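Continuing the series of single-chain predictions for the mutant panel. This is the parent chain; the variants come on the following pages.
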Amino acid sequence: MKTNDQIIIYQTTDGTTSFEVKLENDTIWLTQAQMQDLFNQSKQNISLHINNVFKENELTKSATVKESLTVQKEGVRSVKRKLEFYSLDVIISVGYRVKSQRGTQFRIWANQVLKEYLLKGYSINKNQVQHQQQQFIDLKNTVSLLSNILENKSLNTDEATGLLKVVTDYAYALDILDKYDHQQLTIEGTTAKQLFTISYFAAKQAIYDLKDKFGGSSLFGNEKDESFKSSIATIYQTFDGVDLYPSVEEKAANLLYFVVKNHSFSDGNKRIAAYLFVWFLEKNNTLYKVDGSKRIADNALVALTLMIAESKSDEKETMVKVLVNLINIKN
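Parent structure:
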């Protein structure tokens, strides 16, 4: 496991000596001068033992010694010099040769540090693998949703274009593709401050306005049951005093989902859901980007509404993630 340099501080148990230790490539590195301090030995004595380690073929120099460019202060000047660093294997070998108690203490300390370092690195790598597996699952679910729509519904050109835009826009959020921005498919980049709280009566008025503007059948917006009230109330649900959907984007995404899936109206369910989604974002000043363009294109909204309608109940989390990632401030 190759990593960037890390510097840690080692202090002898008697507290008389401390110095910086370089941690790199799963081992610890010290200079000859640091070994002199560690073992409380002369330069000549440490140099002799190092030479004997390689002379007797106990270790291979190419594998245990590396050069590093360092900057040292000499008076008022900063001077760049190449220093040789020796790995833990060399340090331990020299420690045995000088029969130093300090060497034993350092070896115990170094092994503990490396153990923690390797375990931490394993944990990080394990988490990364698990995260990438989840990313693949999310992507697979999204593609599956698109496939369901293509199998079950004939699409016009605009709807098909919208589906394509969903996939291309959504791709930016997948860090499994290294050429993208390494974003995660999580709820992030959202807007916490809410300027507008949607109410049942305000939403009903918005639906009446929609009907007046675009026309509709006598059944358009006619509520079949209490489920529309429930959809409005659900996006403001709390648990232990904390919002289940804390951001504007999460509330909007869930509002679109619930209104589509609950089939609350005799006619116009998808149109009403999409309209309320856009209306809610606009009321909270989150519908447009800084450049004035919409966070989500009209044809993409059509595609997403169709995806929700065709999706299964256990795919809700995937649908909401797609929505939030497409309308958050990072897109």
